[in-house]
Amino acid sequence: MNTSPASSPFSTLYAALPRIAVLATGGTIAGSAQDATSTAGYQAGVVGVGQLLAAVPALSTVANIHAEQIASVDSKDMSLALWTTLVQRVNALLATEDIDGVVITHGTDTLEETAYLLHLTVRSTKPVVLTAAMRPSSALSADGPLNLLNAVSVAGHRAAHGQGVLVVFNNRIHSARDVVKTSTFAVDTFQSPEVGALGWVQDGRVEFQRSVVRPHTVATEFASGPASADAWPAVEIVTSYAGATRTIVDALVQAGVRGIVVAGTGNGSIHAALQQGLADAASQGVAVVRASRVGSGHVMHNGAASDDALGFVTANSLNPYKARVLLMLALAAGGTGPAELQRVFDLY
Predict the structure, then answer these.
(1) Does the annotation mark 12 as catalytic?
(2) Catalytically annotated residue among 39, 108, 121, 189
(3) Exposed e or buried b for every residue in 221-233, given b needs 16+ CB within 10 A?
(4) By C-alpha distance, which of 116, 104, 103 is closest to 155?
């Protein structure tokens, strides 16, 4: 596709309008309340994709839009079945010559998990951008319309190609691997604590200030993920805290889980009683990944002195929720044993 002249490689736009698929899944961005001053007492996912688009007339100057309503859920209720549907639909759209990029509207609660899943399973270098809102569409100063406009602008920008899955929120562009939700109410809730945003978007201008380094999308070994909801390996999360016991771990092992991610304290440290339960689980073939409940930083692998002896894998800088996503994909792809799983966590 031809491009117009630009002052810098980061401000190059398509000469012709890009063709962007907008896939709606619900969330606060599609929420509504009777009271315009209410940002908490609303129903999520009740506004359809057509109404979302109609609220942003400027979209017609940014892209040619193909819209689909994939789901209408509060993202706290995101399911493995919906993940499977979303991955398959995104890959199908990007495989055609008719679509230049995809934007997904999503709830904020599990957006970082869905974004990271797509970051590892999308089989295209075309842009995929997730966006959302902290205020429902009916609220005063609703943030959804501008976030949607900015997301489409980024998805249609040449600099977004090959950057993996992105999250555009509050004028910032984040990598799906790095971004986390940090506030229960603030419109700047999404941050990348360890490394910062990739760039920014404002008034139609898109600028990337760094690039993604770790493998993603077409460079991963995970194909398109499990083919059905039933094919996802069972992986659960437990937390370490003062007075923690092994009760939950023993129950999960008895239930037949294939993996457990532990949200440890500090550098992924684990209460002694809980640690013994996890070590016993690992000895029975359950994959155990040690992450941290702290909001930033990375969990160091302790080697032969601890992790190797116990059969544990460490999550690097992934939080427990993203570590669960990666562990499920690794197990579904046939990953077995702590050494192989540690390679995966060190790489992605």
Answers:
(1) no
(2) 108
(3) ebeebbeeeeebb
(4) 103
Annotated binding residue at 109? yes
Question: In the CATH scheme, what is the homologous superfamily, with its name and number, of domain 9-219?
Answer: L-asparaginase, N-terminal domain (3.40.50.1170)
- The dihedrals phi and psi of 140, each to the nearest 5 degrees, come to -60, 135
- Provide the 10 A C-beta neighbour count for residue 342: 20
Among 202, 143, 200, smallest CA distance to 172 is for 200
Query: Does the pLDDT at position 5 exceed 60?
Result: no
pLDDT digits (tens, 9 = 90+) for 257-299: 999 999 999 999 999 999 999 999 999 999 999 999 999 999 9
The DSSP H or E segment spanning 85 is: helix 80-94
Measured in degrees and rounded to the nearest 5, phi and psi for residue 275 equal -60, -40
Q: Per the structure block, which two tokens stand in for 2?
A: 């031809």
pLDDT value at position 304?
Answer: 64
Give yes or no: 28 in active site: yes
**Residue that the structure tokens 């129903």 belong to:** 43
E-strand stretches of the chain = 19-26, 64-73, 101-105, 128-131, 165-169, 172-175, 180-181, 190-191, 199-202, 205-208, 235-239, 259-264, 287-292, 312-314
75 is in an annotated binding site: yes
Q: Of these residues, 25, 28, 110, 131, which one is catalytic?
A: 28
Q: Which fold has domain 233-347?
A: Rossmann fold (3.40.50)
Query: Considering just the CA atoms, what is the radius of gyration of the chain in Å?
Result: 21
Strand duo 64-73 + 19-26: pairing: parallel
Torsion sign (Cα): 341, 263, 73, 348: negative
Domains 9-219 and 233-347 share a fold: yes
Sign of CA dihedral 177, 167, 161, 128: positive
Cβ density class 111-144: b for 16+ within 10 Å, e for less: bbbbbbbbbbbbbbbbbbbbbbbbbbbbbeebbb
pTM of the model: 0.93
Name the band, by pLDDT with cuts 50, 70 and 90, for residue 13.
very low
